[in-house]
Amino acid sequence: MDPAADSLLDHLLAAIGVDGDRPEVSLPPGGTLPSAFAVSDLAQASVGTAGAALSEFIGRTTGTAPSVGVDRDLASAWFALSIRPDGWDLPPVWDAVAGDYSGSDGWIKLHTNAPHHRAAALDVLGVPGERGAVAAEVARWRVDELEAMVVGAGGAAAAMRSVDAWDHHPQGRSTAAESLVHLERTSTAGSVAAAIGSGDRPLAGLRVLDLTRVLAGPVATRLLAGWGADVLRLDPPGWDEPNVVPEVTLGKRCARLDLTSATAHEQFLGLLADADVLVHGYRPGALDGLGLGADVREATRPGLVDVCLDAYGWTGPWAGRRGFDSLVQMSSGIARAGMDAAGSDRPVPLPVQALDHATGYLLAACALTGLALRYDDGRGSRWRTSLAAMARLLVDRGVGASIDGDGIHPSGPAPDAPVEHTAWGDARRIPPPVVVDGAPLRWDRPAGPLGSSAPAWAGS
To answer: Please, what's the largest Cα pairwise distance for the chain?
Structure first.
């Protein structure tokens, strides 16, 4: 058992209310990703948390909680990329403008993968979408001022701060005061919930509505689909995230609904009424603005397991701020600490989007624990966490991991994996990182494009 990963596992399980007599989880030693932070420990522990939560749920429904094992190297690799295209290439991860830029007094990251975020940044800078022109203009700005201007224009950006600066920042203080996971019990289901689980598919019959984007939420629902859940992802018309869709739509049906439309609004409520779990990543208040606040969701589906995340936390001046893993790394001191540890002259982020992935597995664990609680008393639950809270957990473990790593290669091949016939061409997936005895992870649908299915439950 890896002691550092086991300590993190205890912390994560306690955050979702699973402590004391927890399921048996094996975390054997393995390699370490190159980072100043304990990224591989976090990968193994967060995957183990989801596995333990499934074991708890199975134990509730069958009387026996199966054992769980997490391969450290595979967990680290799934934090990078699980799909291996055969004869075709994934789109670039980043837009040509996105990245780190040196300002007059420090560094700033511009996140421009979404067209409207790119437009906002370029409008503020007053330059065309050419990297050299952007760099020249950013060099004239104080990074805090540019961050505020881009965010105020509807874009996404983050100035690089040290851990100490974040600790003293109003949002950093607010995040530090929040729990990693917040749980609220809600109403009792109006009728007996349908039976969930069949044979080695413990989540067969479970209906999951997925209102999430890059990247944590889709990781959570991909895992639930792998254990048999019917996952229906809903995106607005025109939205796409081509660089991650082949990675995260595995096992799901993906449809489109314009929730600003009265007709689609009613259609969504019909889908929600038949759902067991809702996973969403809208900023605080956004669903309320669409007429889908917590009271509406609860009234529509009593007993719902409602799981959500945001970027910067649920209190404080940045609670409603747009954010992504890479931006939270800049804000929270992770990129600065990595730069110092590496002796670099520019930001050094984590080697993978670890905040997203770890939060995704934590969200899946919340959903599974919510189902176990509902099995006990029929009551639903609301869960929430944030990328910033996960960053706080990682930073609090301290700097001191191996900046050079020791042999994990997340982009390596998967020659023995079965062929997955995706919409873009054949591919392979690396083996699953977690083994729950008697409940193997497998996906019944290959990855597919957004909007490729009807907005309806399977069999409807």
So the answer is: 64
At 230, phi and psi to the nearest 5? Answer: -85, 105
H or E element in which residue 114 lies: none
Cα 147 to Cα 110, 132, 363, distances in angstroms: 9, 19, 29
Nearest to 387 by CA among 278, 309, 282: 309
Tell me the C-alpha distance between 441 and 201, whole Å: 9
Strand pairing partners for 278? 209, 306
CA-to-CA dists, residue 177 to 171, 173, 203, 381, angstroms: 10, 6, 35, 22
Does residue 192 surpass a pLDDT of 70?
Answer: no
Say whether 233 sits in a helix, a strand or coil.
strand
Q: What is the pLDDT of residues 128-165, one digit of tens each?
A: 999 999 999 999 999 999 999 999 999 999 999 999 99
Only one residue has tokens 């669409």, namely 290
Which of 253, 211, 255, 205 has its CA nearest to residue 228?
205
Query: Does residue 369 contact residue 17 with C-beta atoms inside 8 Å?
Result: yes
Helix segments in 169-273, DSSP class H:
170-177, 216-226, 245-248, 262-273
């020791």: which residue's tokens?
406
Tokens of 124: 């503020």
d(Cα 130, Cα 397) in Å, to the nearest integer?
Answer: 39
Average pLDDT over residues 404-418: 65
Two structure tokens written together for 252: 């799901």
One-character DSSP codes across 39-103 = HHHHHHHHHHHHHHHHHHHHHHHHS-PPPEEE-HHHHHHHTT--EEESSS-PPPSS-SS-EEEE-
E strand residue ranges, 106-216: 107-110, 157-159, 182-188, 207-211
How far apart CA 67 and CA 59 sit, in angstroms, is: 10
**Model pTM above 0.70:** yes
Phi, psi of 108 (to 5 degrees): -140, 145
